[in-house]
Amino acid sequence: MAAGKQTVLQFFPSTTSLSARVHPVVLFNICDCYVRRPDQADRVIGTLLGSVSPDGTVEIKNSYAVPHNESADQVALDIDYHHNMFMSHQKVNPKEVIVGWYSTGFGVSGGSTLIHDFYSREVSNPVHLTVDTGFQNGEASIKAYVSVNLSLGDRQLAAQFQEIPLDLQMIEAERVGFDILKMSLVDKLPNDLEGMEASMERLLALIDDVYKYVDDVVEGRVTPDNNIGRFIADALSSVPKLSPAAFDKLFNDRIQDNLALVYLSSLTRTQLSVAEKLNTAAQIL
């Protein structure tokens, strides 16, 4: 047979090198929907909203759950609900478009291909985000995939899910909440001072790691990395030059401000609670 007429088994990957960045509000929303799921549902499926930058980075900024029924060989999505929710989100933020879909659980399941086919008709090259809501051993398994077609000649055989880089960028306050979310049981939510203490402990641990790395480079035990050196230089240049006395005064003043805010918020909650009870008692009488 001539070489030009041979049947070749080949992949057709995405033409764009994609990566994803997920905002913490999406993870909180997915976990909340999983907790509120129907008793007979094993997992939660939903739509991801966001934007795609010119360099191929998918910004996942929002999400909403979509009701579905799932069996061994088929999946039924509530398409009308999906479209109505998307239209409602467009009225609030028209810049957020559909960028993919999510599901809870560890990795990709058998019915994911059917759901991905539906979202492929909604948007070109959708991203599939999986979130393991079990948080085994206190760790979160969060991954992003795109679909890669496997064809034999002119016939498409299957679709393969290929993992893409995923970035979780959070500010310190959001990271404290995310760390609590990964715990299966907590006695209570930390207050402002406890959250600040946890942040300071994490900062001290990072400073110790940087100090050890710099010491190893100076002693010749580790090969220097210019990129890490630039990051350390940028971090040091961003620190304001304050004397120890001025820093202590600034830190203590900030703590006093936080304590005042905690006291005022507690006082406001108490007044609202008393007013609500008085209003209820007046309606009963």
From TrEMBL:
<dbReference type="InterPro" id="IPR027531">
    <property type="entry name" value="eIF3f"/>
</dbReference>
<dbReference type="InterPro" id="IPR024969">
    <property type="entry name" value="EIF3F/CSN6-like_C"/>
</dbReference>
<keyword id="KW-0963">Cytoplasm</keyword>
<dbReference type="GO" id="GO:0003743">
    <property type="term" value="F:translation initiation factor activity"/>
</dbReference>
<dbReference type="InterPro" id="IPR000555">
    <property type="entry name" value="JAMM/MPN+_dom"/>
</dbReference>
<dbReference type="Pfam" id="PF13012">
    <property type="entry name" value="MitMem_reg"/>
</dbReference>
<dbReference type="GO" id="GO:0008237">
    <property type="term" value="F:metallopeptidase activity"/>
</dbReference>
<keyword id="KW-0648">Protein biosynthesis</keyword>
<protein>
    <recommendedName>
        <fullName>Eukaryotic translation initiation factor 3 subunit F</fullName>
    </recommendedName>
</protein>
<keyword id="KW-0396">Initiation factor</keyword>
<dbReference type="InterPro" id="IPR037518">
    <property type="entry name" value="MPN"/>
</dbReference>
<dbReference type="GO" id="GO:0033290">
    <property type="term" value="C:eukaryotic 48S preinitiation complex"/>
</dbReference>
<dbReference type="GO" id="GO:0016282">
    <property type="term" value="C:eukaryotic 43S preinitiation complex"/>
</dbReference>
<comment type="subunit">
    <text>Component of the eukaryotic translation initiation factor 3 (eIF-3) complex.</text>
</comment>
<feature type="domain" description="MPN">
    <location>
        <begin position="20"/>
        <end position="151"/>
    </location>
</feature>
<dbReference type="GO" id="GO:0071541">
    <property type="term" value="C:eukaryotic translation initiation factor 3 complex, eIF3m"/>
</dbReference>
<dbReference type="GO" id="GO:0031369">
    <property type="term" value="F:translation initiation factor binding"/>
</dbReference>
<dbReference type="GO" id="GO:0001732">
    <property type="term" value="P:formation of cytoplasmic translation initiation complex"/>
</dbReference>
<dbReference type="Pfam" id="PF01398">
    <property type="entry name" value="JAB"/>
</dbReference>
<comment type="similarity">
    <text>Belongs to the eIF-3 subunit F family.</text>
</comment>
<comment type="function">
    <text>Component of the eukaryotic translation initiation factor 3 (eIF-3) complex, which is involved in protein synthesis of a specialized repertoire of mRNAs and, together with other initiation factors, stimulates binding of mRNA and methionyl-tRNAi to the 40S ribosome. The eIF-3 complex specifically targets and initiates translation of a subset of mRNAs involved in cell proliferation.</text>
</comment>
